[in-house]
Specification:
Two copies of one chain form a homodimer. Chain A has about 425 residues and is an alpha/beta fold. Chain A has three domains: about 5-130 and about 300-320, NAD(P)-binding Rossmann-like Domain (Rossmann fold, 3-Layer(aba) Sandwich), CATH 3.40.50.720; about 135-295, Dihydrodipicolinate Reductase, domain 2; about 345-425, Alpha-Beta Plaits (2-Layer Sandwich), CATH 3.30.70.260. Chain A has 13 helices and 17 strands. Chains A and B meet through helix 1, helix 5, strand 12 and helix 11 of A and helix 1, helix 5, strand 12 and helix 11 of B. Chains A, B: Belongs to the homoserine dehydrogenase family.
Chain lengths: ~425, ~425
């Protein structure tokens, strides 16, 4: 007796998944019980890396999602529609689903998991975050004894690649983005990556699992890396930091969460500081486990297909050992309550800011006074450079409330001596 | 309906586990269905960090292992006996077992898993390797789609702490070991740690899971760190390496394995090079996943208890969703065949060696000739220093067969000009 798989999509990840399933010698023996029964594609005749028996390929994806012969649907189309509708249709037809689709899960997770619970099927999503790195399974299965305090991730390979090159080459964002696009490390429309939206989808999923509740994507504060300049990277370096696009989900003392994505100054001795290029890593802090970090390639055919196949194996393991009278409580999603996400103004963090000011005595004092008036305690304030007839002043704060910091900045921005505030970044 | 737990042992890990189970607010809700029903200790009256209702503590551990009311046995006594007998007794009485005992599993895993399969129960062992870091579960559940090529771990916190301090303080092994003992980072009898035996147990377990077969512990080549000196660390540093005690399980082209523990020169830019102090990390290479690394504290009450409780949650999840007609194929152990482990002489690796020689012309040539005669190709051979009237010569090879290298060394050691060969280390 085997399990029949319907594969929706035969792009990079779909092809990688098929290659594992069609060539399973040396892998887990359970894979031999799987059959790729149907593959849904947009065009039958396109030349492909993998070959299937006649009749396996079809352009009728809906027929796959509803085919009574199929046990497990693998959704690797990406994008919102038709992925969402096909997942829901497969669930309604009693099929388990494995998906790599962070966009659908972060937006429609509540709808999808409610439907799955009602139908008594599983929706597995390891491949949606961090490529092949086991992140979802550890959060669901291994770390359940912990009170998770904070998850901090580098979960977007494109931006990490760009920031790493900016760091190494002392280059500017636009030029390196263009080169990354030419090399295939960034999309023609790079917005989802460089504006932090992809990382926002992923941290929403991570936060939901780490803190046991639903997350509204609109509550996730996202800033991208377009405004990170070579100047900031150089100053950060002098101060002992590298700049990384971090996705952070943190439990606050009032039991609300802060969930956010933004470029961040990371101390060079922090384990995340040395995660470079297209690599991803997720740093988890919990009680009593302390700190752990999970690291690997965050995208690409091989790593993502590894995660998809891991999910299929888990599913088949459960199906073989269970009577499916009740869903496995660690592998199903029982969240019903939405987590309370605190507004970004309430965030308590350290800040870095750079000011261009007129080069005259007393400016540092005025800036310091504005911060002091708003209870913003400073770690350092230094005149770092002279640019023409302007002075460059760099400030690093202690932990302060973001709202207070912003109010102080507004006041400082209105001072006659201040030319501009080219950069404001948070510090880990 | 809840699940009753029998806890064997109330030392560091047992206490940590009890603390999680007795104080489960904010952790996975499934924990509320668990009850610590009996705790086996050596003395009832000892003052303890955790309190139990009257009648829970008992000195009769065998009665716990055979108690029909108990569903799950947690074995955190450590050591070989009575741990092995109690685990076997619990299995024979139809109980699932969670253990942190790498020594028992690496030596008696075949006996224990055969008994468990016959009885239809699970033996879970995440806590036996790498403290709270999810290593066993990823190898069992997430990475099954891969052909694992190599697993390289820093899996002993004591030796990593000692080597890190030797590196930072330029100190010698004996003095830092004594200090580590005073601070509680090393045992009074440090042999299991510093001679590589603990790491050997762990890499045997990892290899078994990564490569899908049983491992005979006697086939695991173990060298410890007693002979690593401050001189070696200094030379390694100059050459761009740090010295780590690595546990390595690698698949050879002839499909045999090499499984070994030894101090190793690790290039400074390798992710394992920056794993310092008591931290552990496991670096996994597979096809198609590429490289991943899992990192965290490798020991201690909190991390190890986190792993124990993760295993309990997994077990309960399976029990709730299954009819137990068949064991979950990823969580049970179906290995029947022993892996073929190739002898250390067949290993192909790079070497570092340091020679003390008479300071006269021609010595380097003679050493080079001996290596060349045995097909040992050198990357560098340099006279690194003069010590009194002796010259210090440091050699780094390319990849060579260990047997050839050892034969060349024997020949070199017999040369009249060679005073001694104080150090031979492998290079990653």
């Amino acid at each position: 007796m085997g399990y029949k798989i319907g594969l929706l999509g035969l792009g990079t990840v779909g092809t990688g998944t098929a290659e594992i399933l069609l060539n399973c010698e040396g892998r887990h023996p359970l894979l031999k019980e799987l059959e790729i029964y149907r593959v849904g594609v947009s065009s039958i005749d396109k030349p492909r890396q993998v070959q299937f028996a006649p009749g396996v390929l079809t352009t009728d994806l809906e027929a796959i999602a509803t085919d009574p012969a199929i046990d497990i649907i693998i959704e690797v189309i990406g994008g919102l529609e038709p992925a969402r509708s096909l997942i829901l249709k497969a669930i309604a037809h009693g099929k388990h689903v494995v998906t790599a689709n962070k966009a659908v899960i972060s937006r429609y997770g509540d709808e999808i998991f409610s439907a799955a619970n009602q139908a008594g099927v599983y929706v597995m999503l390891e491949a949606s975050v961090g490529g092949g790195i086991p992140i979802i399974h550890p959060l669901k299965q291994s770390l359940g004894g912990n009170r998770i305090q904070c998850v901090t991730g580098i979960v977007n390979g494109t931006t990490n690649y760009i920031l790493t090159r900016m760091q190494e080459e002392k280059g500017e964002f636009e030029a390196i983005l263009a080169d990354a696009q030419a090399l295939g490390y960034a999309e023609a429309d790079p917005s989802a990556d460089v504006d932090g939206l992809d990382a926002g989808d992923k941290i929403a999923i991570i936060a939901s699992l780490a803190f046991g509740g639903r997350i509204r994507l609109k509550d996730v504060h996202c800033e991208g890396i377009r405004h990170v300049s070579a100047t900031e990277i150089a100053y950060a370096d002098k101060l002992g930091f590298v700049i990384k696009l971090l996705a952070i989900a943190k439990s606050n003392p009032d039991s609300s969460l802060s969930v956010r994505v933004h470029p961040t100054l990371v101390p060079k001795n922090h384990p995340l500081a040395s995660i470079n290029g297209v690599y991803n890593a997720v740093f988890i802090e919990g009680e009593p486990i302390g700190q752990i970090m999970l690291y690997g390639r965050g995208a690409g055919a091989g790593p993502t297909a590894s995660a998809v196949v891991g999910d299929i194996l888990n599913l088949v393991g459960i199906l073989k050992s269970g009577d499916a009278s009740e869903l496995h409580p660690l592998l199903s999603c029982s969240h019903e309550v939405y987590c309370e996400i605190s507004p970004i103004d309430e965030l308590v963090t350290r800040f870095y800011a750079r000011f261009l000011t007129k080069d005259r005595p007393g400016v540092i004092g005025k800036i310091g006074t504005c911060f002091g008036d708003r209870n913003v305690s400073l770690e350092s304030i230094v005149q770092a450079d002279i640019r023409g007839d302007l002075a460059e002043i760099v400030v690093v704060t202690h932990d302060v409330r973001e709202g207070d910091f912003r109010q102080a900045l507004a006041k400082i921005g209105s001072l006659e001596a201040i030319e501009s505030i080219p950069s404001i970044l948070r510090v880990l």
